[in-house]
Amino acid sequence: EDELRRRPADCAVEASVGMHTSSVRERVVATVRGALPFVYTPLYEGGALPDWVMAIGETPSLQLLPAIDSLTRSYRLQRWFLIGNDYCWPRRSHAMASRTLRSAASEIVGNRYLPTAALDVERMIDEIRSTRAQAVLMSLVGQDAVDFNRAFGEAGLAGKVIRLSCAVEENGLLLMKGAVPGPR
C-alpha cells in the first residue's frame, strides 16, 4: 500500500503481470523497485522475493523434486544428464535436483548450461548418448527446447532415455511435434 501511495496520481499502470523467464523477472524487480505490485506467473526456482512480488507458479520443491523422485524410483534411474539454458532458473533448479539425485544414489553424468540460441543440438545429443544417461532433466526454453527435443527424437533417443522438463508449454509442444511449422 505504501508503494501505491507514493506513485504519481496520473500513473495509468496499477500493477504488472509477467509471463517470462526468471532472468527477465530479476530485471523487472530491479527496475520497478516496489513502485507497483508485480504478479509473476510461470514456475520459478523458488527463494525469497520482495513483498510486492507475487509468484504464483510452481517451485522445484513442489514440482521438479517429486517428479525426479517418482521417476527415479519407478524406472530405477541411476544415470541423469542435466541440460539447461544459462540463467538463474536452470542453475538453481539443477542445484536442487542434483542434491535430490545424489541422495537417491543416482549419478549425474553431465550438467550443461548453454546460452540461449547457441545450442549445438548434435553435439549435445552425442554427449548424452556417450554418457549412457538413462534420463535427461531438460531446462531449456523457447526454440532451444524445440530444437533439442526434435533432435532427441530424430536421434532415436526418445524411446530409450526418459526426458523430464518443467517448462514445456503448448506452443513449444506443437512445434516439437511438427504440428506447426517453425524454424529448424
In short:
The chain is an alpha/beta fold and 184 residues long. The protein has helices at residues 2-6, 22-32, 64-75, 88-103, 121-131, 142-154, 170-177, and strands spanning 16-18, 38-40, 53-55, 79-85, 107-114, 135-139, 162-164. It is globular and about 60 Å long.
Q: What amount of the residues lies in strands?
A: 15-25%
User: Could you give the count of β-strands?
Assistant: 7
**What form results from the Cα inertia axes?**
globular
What is the assembly state of the chains in this entry? single chain
Give an overview in words.
The structure is a single chain. The protein has seven helices and seven strands, in the order αβαββαβαβαβαβα. The mean pLDDT is 89. The strands form two sheets. Strands 5-4-6-7 form a four-stranded parallel beta sheet, sandwiched between helices. It has a three-stranded parallel beta sheet with strand order 1-2-3, with no helix packed on it. The chain is globular and about 60 Å long. It has 184 residues and is of the alpha/beta class.
